[in-house]
Specification:
Length: 308
């Protein structure tokens, strides 16, 4: 059993009549890249704010490296770096100067460390440029650099890819991977991009209506079996209606234009193919795939795939 970095027990929070978080228990171990997912309003951001002491919990405890957040706040948060929502910087100061200024506010950081962080987040060449000229992705990188400045042992990143284009998302993903490879920082990551979470995390927790409804290693939760079938076909809506009428109990989804999808469940794919062909429909491909994080999410929550 690896060392517990973050331990949450019985954490609860209400806002008026709304139970944002209810009796939450979770443990993050040293070296984890822990993914925290759930629908809008599931309680993730409220949880993160309670972990950081930004709002008070109604009940429960938060322990970081054995320190109780409420009893020893300074010792607890001194080992934590965080990026919550969009980072705020002084636009007319350079990236370097922003990090230097924030470093001074937290007790001082030497120039060598600032250069080291800027290099790690890929901003060395733009260190002397004013932040007002940075792209959104560069500001997110600088925000992660700020979270790393004081050499934290735990990093909490809330939506670090929010608002980024595909290239920016890939860059942040690679940066998180690079940080985790160093083996010295445990990462607690909240994001609505399920495919990204699947690629960078080793453990996940799924929130719904303020409760943790699933937690574990990504591989074990998803399973390795190829239990999904995808069919590329023309007239997908007509094909869906035909197959559901011919094969009782077969539930098909239309994940995107020109595609059908269903659970394998020992279905005879040759008969499904023949039914479509005999009806005059063009079947371009039939293939199997493994369950992904999006599938798991929908199965567990039964809600919108737009998570926060």
């Amino acid at each position: 059993m690896r060392e517990a970095v973050l331990e949450i027990r019985g954490l609860s929070k209400k806002f008026g009549e709304i139970q944002a978080v209810k009796d939450l228990n979770l443990t993050i171990q040293r070296g984890d890249v822990y993914g925290f997912i759930g629908p809008n309003g599931a309680g993730k951001t409220t949880t993160i704010r309670m972990i950081l002491g930004l709002i008070h919990a109604d009940a429960g405890s938060v322990r970081i490296f054995g320190h109780d957040l409420h009893k020893d706040f300074r010792a607890t948060v001194s080992q934590v770096g965080a990026l919550v929502e969009s980072p705020a910087f002084y636009p007319y100061l350079t990236g370097y100067r922003n990090l230097s200024l924030f470093g001074d506010l937290s007790g001082g950081v030497d120039a060598e460390r600032i250069q080291e962080v800027l290099k790690l987040v890929g901003l060395s060449r733009r260190a002397k440029h004013k932040v007002k000229g940075y792209s959104h992705g560069m500001k997110q990188r600088l925000g992660i650099g700020l979270a790393m400045l004081a050499r934290p042992k735990l990093m909490i990143l809330d939506e670090p890819t929010n608002g980024l284009d595909p290239q920016g998302i890939r860059e942040i993903r690679n940066l998180i991977r690079e940080i985790s490879r160093q083996g010295e920082i445990t990462i607690f990551l909240s994001s609505h991009l399920l495919s990204e979470m699947e690629m960078v995390t080793n453990r996940i927790g799924v929130m719904s209506r303020g409760k943790l409804i699933a937690e574990g290693e990504v591989g074990k939760l998803l399973g390795g079996a190829q239990d999904r079938v995808e069919i590329r076909v023309d007239q997908e809506l007509k094909a869906k209606a035909l197959l559901e009428s011919k094969f009782p109990g077969l539930a098909l989804a239309v994940p995107r234009l020109g595609w059908l999808e269903f659970k394998q469940e020992n279905r005879d794919l040759s008969k499904i193919n023949a039914t479509l062909v005999q009806a005059g429909m063009a079947v371009h491909s039939i293939s199997s795939r493994s369950r992904n994080l999006e599938d798991l999410f929908v199965e567990l929550t039964g809600e919108s795939k737009d998570v926060y």
